[in-house]
Specification:
By secondary structure, the protein is mostly beta strands. The protein is built from no helices and eleven strands.
């Protein structure tokens, strides 16, 4: 079973930056598409960003496009989400997910393995 774990969340002021990291166990990291999702209190879990298996293609929700950057280092089994110009509306639990497909869809059902989430809180 592939285990996924996020880190890097915390409390920041509006306009600040955070970088989230995610690692996935096993030997197949470089075959997986990877994605970030988030869930705010009382809301459903929403797509944030995704990256295909080799990092050549990235996808972003409109709400974060231009502010967030998803990247990966397959040699280190690491996925990143750099979040710049954070807004209070970005406050949520952020989840890392892995898809066996290699090229991601943008919905939860297309992902096979999920982390436990890391809290990001943006104060005004």
């Amino acid at each position: 079973q592939v285990q996924v774990m996020e880190s890097g969340g915390g409390l920041v002021q509006a306009a600040g930056s955070l970088r989230l990291s995610c690692t996935a166990s096993g030997r197949a990291f470089g075959d997986f598409a990877m994605g970030w999702f988030r869930q705010a209190p009382g809301k459903e879990r929403d797509f944030v960003a995704a990256i295909n298996y080799n990092g050549r293609n990235t996808y972003y929700a409109n709400s974060v496009k231009g502010r967030f950057t998803i990247s990966r280092d397959n040699a280190k089994n690491l996925l990143y989400l750099l979040m710049n110009n954070l807004k209070p509306e970005d406050t949520a639990v952020y989840y890392c997910a892995a898809s066996k497909q290699g090229n991601p869809g943008l919905i939860e059902i297309e992902y096979d393995y999920w982390g436990q989430g890391t809290q990001v809180t943006v104060s005004s």
